[in-house]
Amino acid sequence: MHRTPDSVLKPQKYLGGRGLVVLIALLSAFVPLSTDLYLPALPGMGDYFGVSASQTNLTLILFFIFFSLGLLFWGPLSDKYGRRPVLLTGLALYIAASVGCALSWDVWHLIAFRILQAVGGSAASAVATAMVKDAYDGRKRESVLALVQSMVVISPAVAPVLGAFMLPYTSWRGLFVALALIGVVSFVGGLLLEETIPARYNGTVGQSVRRLGAVLKNPGFASLLIVFSLVSTASLAFVSASSYIYQEGFGLSEQSYSFYFALNAAGLIAGPFLYLWLSRHFGRRPIVASGFAVMLAGGALVCLFGSLGPLFFALALFPASMMGSCVRSPGAFLMLEQQKEDAGSASALINCSGLVFGSAGMVLVFLAGENLVLSLGAINMAVGMVCLAGWAAIGRRGLVRF
Fold it and tell me: 69: domain range?
């Protein structure tokens, strides 16, 4: 079938064009929704269960690890069986596990249900990026990726605020009930979805999973994957440490913390829109290079001024947050462009690698001692420097079709 740059592979009878974009954005938001909504409750959950912060943080760290592993299973499976059945199966598991989290009676049962929640939710993220590859081409695909990113990063701004304002009226259990309801809404959207995959993989399940290796053998895809996944190291380090920096370090209330967190999330929201504007005037290569350079500089600002107070910290981190978000859209577009087939496997690797590097950031930020502000600034500086060098090397070696 011939596809123009603005065409949709198959019209969505029930969702329509806008409904498809909204569903993709919601599915892509499962990671921030599943983590950020209950971030304000983390210190209180530790007190409730009588455990240390490191044990409570396992509900975050193990979520990301098993979410990453789930992506590697669901992504190739969606190439074989289609996006819709994989999506509905994963969402059913996510809803059941979210209810289990709400009913947990000790921290270890909560961790177990969070693992199941991660495995189910990973199906949503695995098919979301693949659906963009299925449905759009060229500049239209890049625009949809940027739009989806802008909608996705609204959730880190809204979720902690919503969670903080829910806590006076409900416990942390009510936050997991809210996640179950989000899963139900997504499940309804999945029922209305018409299959987007243009052609299914005909091999066995084992052969389908092994396509992950074939995708990784593409040097252009693999090099881009490493560079752009590193960005998640800095962003998820902030997610992991933010409640402790603002609430314990600066002594803010849960509600005040949520507003400062939202200020940094505003940078994430502005990033994709900034990229769309910049891309009308400049090429992808200088935009991405500038983004990495700003991340480096932003990390230095956090190291120098972040400890002076919560507002200084938020403003110093803002440029790095915004440019980290800005480079995600061209990064995802370029990675998808390197693969003509195996969109599910490519999507799984993109999301999995980002979460693996992000999980490393969540651990690293706590290894440098009690000065989390300085640790976070150093991580942003290191990420910006390494990504900038890697991006330059990719350009010199001609590994990628820009």
Answer: 16-397
Q: Would 64 be classed as within a structural domain?
A: yes
97-111, 230-244, 358-372 — which one is most confidently predicted on average? 97-111
- What is the DSSP secondary structure assignment for residue 195, as one 8-state letter? P
pLDDT tens digits, 162-187? 777 788 888 888 889 999 999 999 99
For the chain, report the end-to-end CA distance as a whole number of angstroms. 25
* CA pair distance 118, 128, nearest whole angstrom: 15
Do 342 and 214 meet the contact criterion of CB atoms below 8 Å apart?
Answer: yes
* Residue 51 phi, psi dihedral angles, 5° rounding: -125, 170
Instruction: Provide the 10 A C-beta neighbour count for residue 254.
Output: 21
CA gap 88, 78 in Å, rounded: 11
- Of 83, 123, 145, the residue nearest 335 (C-alpha): 145
**Mean pLDDT for the chain?**
86
Give the whole-angstrom CA distance, residue 52 versus residue 45. Answer: 10
How many angstroms separate the CA atoms of 145 and 139, rounded? 10
Distance from C-alpha of 167 to C-alpha of 188, rounded to nearest angstrom: 27
What is the Cα 104 distance to its own chain's centre? 26
Q: Is residue 8 part of a domain?
A: no
Helices 343-367 and 372-397 meet at what angle, rounded to 10? 140
Q: What is the CATH number of the domain that holds 120?
A: 1.20.1250.20
- Residue 151 above 80 pLDDT? no
pTM exceeds 0.85, yes or no: no
Cα 76 to Cα 195: distance, rounded to the nearest angstrom: 16
* pLDDT for the residue 11: 66
- What is the number of structural domains in the chain? 1
Closest to 201 measured CA to CA, from 80, 86, 84, 341: 80
Confidence check: pLDDT of 242 > 70: yes
